[in-house]
Amino acid sequence: MPNVYAVIMAGGVGTRFWPRSREKTPKQLLEIVGKGTMIQNTVGRLRDLIDPRKIVIVTNKTQKQALVRQLPEIPLENILLEPVGRNTAPCIGLAAMYIRRFDPEAVMVVLPADHIMQDEEEFRRVLRLAIWVAEESGSLITVGIQPTRPETGYGYIQVRDDEDPGNPYFEKGVYHVRTFAEKPNLPTAYRFLESGDFLWNSGMFIWRVDAILREIQLLLPEMNEELLKIDDAFGTEKFEQVFDTAYRTIRGISIDYGVMEKAKSVYVIKGNFGWSDVGSWDEVMRLASKDEQGNSSNGKVFFHNSKNTYVHAGNKFVATVDVDNVIVIVTEDSVLVCKKDHSQDVKEVVDYLRRKQLNDYL
To answer: In 10 A of CB 201, how many CB atoms?
Structure first.
């Protein structure tokens, strides 16, 4: 096994999980499904694979204290604080330059902080395979999820899974990527599902540090220039000032659009381990246990003549009467009520609160 580091991206706010997810206590710091917060479970499932001292978390100042409290096993110096969110490419580039100081040829496993893997053994098997291919080939590896429904909330990856003479890893279930596709509309999602050669884009990546930094230098030269300024200032009195100025100069861009879609050597491994990005309240409802009427709840809840409804009651008592296909989320200061199939639109509430500067609810 090569020298392996994990990078956990934990700077998001989780706007679609309002009103539970707030700026100081975003989705990854909450218990959403099962025991333990989402980031605790993300770190926990890396047990037996990656030393906690080699886990790097990229987040922001607002979330730092809660992360330190929840993850005492992670060294303080491994918690990198972005001055401002700039999407996944700068986040990953920053972490790669940090890890390069310890081992420029180490393998990086890049994971979001807020995903669920129901079959953790299979998840670790896929990671071990990806780590081996990344270390040996110097290529960029991602994990694609076998789709189970025509999902419009995920990006997609088209794979080349026919006989591929230029692929030495084909027999091990590692495939060349044909193309990346943005989140589709429903008819397109149905076509992707029926074709059989599209996977959900999980947002998980595996590569050597030198490989990803090489691609960033080639494909995102302006971003690379600012990251090098940060790297050069590390350990000096000017570091904080240089870091803040350079990072704010970087144009926000995702690693998918900035690098993965343009890189020449990209492989994907199919994942079938009960993955979910738990991206909205209807996904929580889908994963929750339900009664005979399809209802599920958390807290003190009474359903009367209600079907396919999810209620998170917080510290309140909640009753629903003659309600179908509704999600109700209750906190100390807010209540969300929405149709089950429209929970992606909860982010519009957060946008409204920001426009009206109702910061107490953010």
So the answer is: 22
Give backbone dihedrals phi and psi of 279, rounded to 5 degrees, phi first.
Answer: -80, -10
In contact, 18 and 336? CB cutoff 8 Å: yes
Instruction: Break the chain into its structural domains and give their ranges.
Output: 4-276, 281-361
CB 87 within 8 A of CB 260: no
Question: Are 139 and 133 spatial neighbours (Cβ–Cβ below 8 Å)?
Answer: yes
d(CA 140, CA 82): 24
CATH 3.90.550.10 matches 4-276: yes
The whole-angstrom separation of Cα 205 and Cα 45 is: 16
pLDDT, tens only, 258-315: 999 999 999 999 999 999 988 889 889 988 999 999 999 999 999 999 999 999 999 9
In one-letter notation, the amino acid at residue 166 is G
Q: What is the pTM of this model?
A: 0.92
**CA angle 70–74–76, rounded 5-degree value:** 100
Q: List CB contacts of 186: < 8 A, sequence separation 6 or more.
A: 150, 152
Task: Please say whether the beta carbons of 141 and 114 come within 8 A.
Answer: no
**Residue 224 and residue 90: Cα distance in Å, rounded?**
9
pLDDT category of residue 338 using cuts at 50, 70 and 90 = very high
Q: How far apart are CA 203 and CA 142, in angstroms?
A: 7
Q: What percent of the chain has pLDDT over 90?
A: 82
pLDDT of the residue at 341: 86
For residue 61, how many other CB atoms are within 10 A of its CB?
9
Q: Say how far apart CA 281 and CA 260 lie, in whole Å.
A: 29
Q: Rounded to whole angstroms, how far apart are CA atoms 276 and 118?
A: 9
